Prior knowledge:
Order of helices and strands: HEHEHEEEEEEHEEEHEEEEEHHHH
Distance between the termini: 48 Å
Low-confidence stretches: 14-19, 171-179, 335-339, 368-398
Strand order of the largest sheet: 4-3-2-1-15-16
Protein name: Calcineurin-like phosphoesterase domain-containing protein
Radius of gyration: 26 Å
Mean pLDDT: 78
Keywords: Signal
Shape: globular
Oligomer: single chain
Number of helices: 9
Domain Calcineurin-like phosphoesterase: 29-225
Largest sheet: 6 strands, mixed
Structural class: alpha/beta
InterPro entries: Calcineurin-like_PHP, Metallo-depent_PP-like
Signal peptide: 1-16
Amino acid sequence: MRAAAALLLLLHAAFAARQDNDTKTYEYNIVVVGDIHDDVDALYRLRDHLQRHSRRYDMLLCTGDLTSMAHEATSKGTAGAGDVPRSNAYMRRAAAVAEALAAMAPLAYFVPGALDPLPLYDAPASAAPANQARNAHEQVEEVTRGLWVAGLGGAPAPFEYKGDGSKSTKKRARVANETKSWLNGFPYDDAEFKKRQQSLRKAISNIPAGDAVLLLTHAGPDGAGTSLLAGADPDSIDDPKGIRKQPLHAGSAALHDLLAAPCVQINHAHGRAHAAGGVARFGRTTVVNPGSLRYTRQYGTVTLMETRTYRPRRASSWRVVRAAIHDADDRSLDAATAAPALSPGRALVAGLALLVFGAVAARLCVSRADAPRSRSWRRRLYAAEFDAADDGDPLAAS
């Protein structure tokens, strides 16, 4: 009886170990930036900052407004092709930003914003040069097994509610500061933006059941705190210059409807509302507004957890485990990771220790130079390399 019980326990342990081997988890790190407004240097400073602290990201998402294209004044609240400059200068600026974005992560996506040139709305992701981020506008692409990116650029005009609860579109007067041009919608009004959202929803509905979607837009969903601007100055979080009587709604009702529909979005990254940067929950979706890298000096990070099963067939499920907004000018970690200065005496001791260690290591290498390596050791080495390649980056394993 004891032998039978021991055998049963052994079989149970073996079965449990096999189940553990059939399921593995991986972390997938995403950095989110937005509203760059031509500040290419800010992107390279952020890249250097992340590299100093050995923070590796698998993907970058940019929420639009690569440039700061001025709009002509318009009484209808939405700027069109006739209200924007006819010049290639803004396309050259956008290309410089897209190149800097691509240098920050192995895979980078962006959508055009309300201050980006019109040709970006017609450029598919497949047309992007290899050294630039991919344009995700009206695109749905599979990033890796079970994970997709869906994008929609542009934004309707912001609005505020009157005292009686009715909606009033904010009319923009002519201003000298071109960064205020965002009070126009571009290039779509509310009706056109709703049509575009419906087309995107149809494309998302074709994604296999159980897969997850990262939604990337410029405007956010109306109703989320990340789309509401309470300060009089929408570009500042340090000096908002007072509080509005009614908050300015920079989000889209159409995107509200998209997130409310039963679908598989797990994360929605958007921009536009500079001073409303933050993280919010919208049903099951984590909404991230990274703020403006130029004006509010912020960026976001999102960590996804992939649970990968291998039996009866390989499948992946995804969820958001962490999302946060960070200060791009925070240097508190720089001092923590900097090497402490050594006194001359300690430096001398450390140098002698290194010399002794080097001499001992060299002697050991010489003594083992003639010793034959076992074939089994080499087999273990190759097996370890194979396992590392198989169980590493989710992108490499897809």
